[in-house]
From TrEMBL:
Enzyme Commission number(s) of this protein: 3.1.2.2
Protein name, as recorded: Acyl-coenzyme A thioesterase THEM4
Domain of life: Bacteria
MF-aspect GO terms: hydrolase activity
Species for this entry: Rhodococcus indonesiensis
Subcellular location: Cell projection, Ruffle membrane; Cytoplasm; Membrane
Domain called Thioesterase: residue spans: 125-194
Family listed: Belongs to the THEM4/THEM5 thioesterase family.
Highest classification ranks of the organism: Bacteria, Bacillati, Actinomycetota, Actinomycetes, Mycobacteriales
Membrane topology reported for the UniProt record: Peripheral membrane protein
Annotated SUPFAM superfamilies: Thioesterase/thiol ester dehydrase-isomerase
Catalysed reactions, as listed in the record: octanoyl-CoA + H2O = octanoate + CoA + H(+); dodecanoyl-CoA + H2O = dodecanoate + CoA + H(+); (9Z)-octadecenoyl-CoA + H2O = (9Z)-octadecenoate + CoA + H(+); hexadecanoyl-CoA + H2O = hexadecanoate + CoA + H(+)
């Protein structure tokens, strides 16, 4: 897949007229992207709601019925769709903030993300979500350009300003240098001109015996 084409792939299109900006519109024939979008809608609606105890009980029953249906389609981790849809924001991994990585070169990566209340701490992005976003884009860069697999060894995040909800944030990553198996990376997150967070990270190239559980599907 040509990674530079990602922003125009099915499921990666945001409808500016939609009431809830966290529900991406999807191509009509992309059924899995539709399912991801529906789960996101449930997450955001759940976070925003204050249902009565009676409604909580009824909703829990309905959601358990959905979970039971999905369990009928359970497969091994290598075969699941979630996390392997490289064309979708967040790779179809519904825990992940919907980061759209738009450009990856050998030394830089750029993306955009908008989070809602589901990923909120208190009127700002939760402090655990920011590293998730950095890990995603910096790992993608660390493993780009045909480099052998590397995993995150350390990720040091500085929170410079509250990251606002409901607005687009720009995320960038830079490949600083390689020292043997160690790859040093740097990341920044901006809202407009405001630096909201920055990160330094180390990715360590895996030895052959450490790549046993990694498959071709882990490659964009
Ligand atoms: C996996 C690939 C998927 C990618 C898909 C693309 C994007 C996907 C997007 C999804 C994103 C998901 C991505 C994820 O979420 S990856 C998941 C999160 N990360 C992990 O689970 C990694 C767990 N840790 C390990 O497996 C091992 O510790 C590794 C493999 C990292 C190193 O253990 P190993 O036994 O092999 O190496 P070593 O100990 O001899 O160390 C080697 C060198 O490194 C230096 N060092 C080590 N650790 C640290 C440290 N903390 N600070 C500073 N330095 C450190 C060390 O001093 C030494 O330096 P030197 O003495 O040589 O100078």
């Amino acid at each position: 897949m040509d990674i530079t084409q990602q922003s125009t792939m099915p499921g990666d299109i945001w409808n500016p007229d939609w009431n809830d900006p966290f529900v991406p519109t999807v191509e009509p024939n992309d059924a899995f992207a539709e399912l991801v979008s529906a789960v996101h809608e449930v997450q955001e609606a759940f976070t925003r709601a204050r249902p009565t105890p009676t409604d909580c009980a009824a909703l829990a029953t309905e959601l358990r019925a959905v979970a039971a249906k999905l369990k009928m389609f359970e497969v091994g981790e290598d075969d699941q769709l979630a996390g392997h849809r490289w064309d979708l924001a967040g790779r179809g991994q519904v825990m992940a903030p919907p980061l759209r990585i738009e450009e990856v070169t050998a030394t830089t990566a750029k993306g955009r993300v908008t989070v809602g209340r589901f990923h909120s701490g208190r009127y700002a992005m939760n402090g655990g979500v920011t590293p998730l976003i950095f890990d995603e884009i910096m790992a993608r860069l660390a493993n780009s350009a045909g480099r052998p697999w590397a995993r995150t060894a350390s990720l040091d995040v500085d929170f410079r300003a509250p990251a606002p909800l409901d607005v687009e944030l720009r995320v960038q990553a830079q490949f600083l240098r390689q020292d043997g198996r160690k790859r040093y990376m740097r990341g920044t997150m901006h809202h407009g001109d405001v630096l909201v967070a920055e990160a330094d990270g180390l990715w360590v190239e895996l030895k052959p015996e450490q790549t046993r559980n990694i498959s071709e599907r882990d490659t964009p």
